[in-house]
Amino acid sequence: MSQHSLNRLRDAESDKAVFDNLLWCLLGGLIGFFTNVVTGDRSVDAPGYVFLTFIAVTTIATFTMRRRLVRRLTQARKRVHHGGD
User: Fold this and answer.
1) What is the Cα–Cα distance from 85 to 72, expressed in whole angstroms?
2) CA triplet 64, 69, 71: central angle to 5 degrees?
3) 62 CB neighbour count, 10 Å cutoff
4) How does the average pLDDT of the chain come out, rounded?
């Protein structure tokens, strides 16, 4: 196990934390949007649908990237714990 492997593992864990935070912010935005639609008395206009689409696509992309990172992080942890590079 090398110091380089440990540094890469720490960096990957840090990246995962960033994706987790971003994902929670985006999910909060989606929940807030739907809360405003349900409790408001106005209908959603075209800019609202554009915003909703943007947030939804960004959320899906972030979730996908986070999932790939978690898979790579799991493999890296196995390599570090088993002594392989």
Assistant:
1) 13
2) 100
3) 19
4) 89
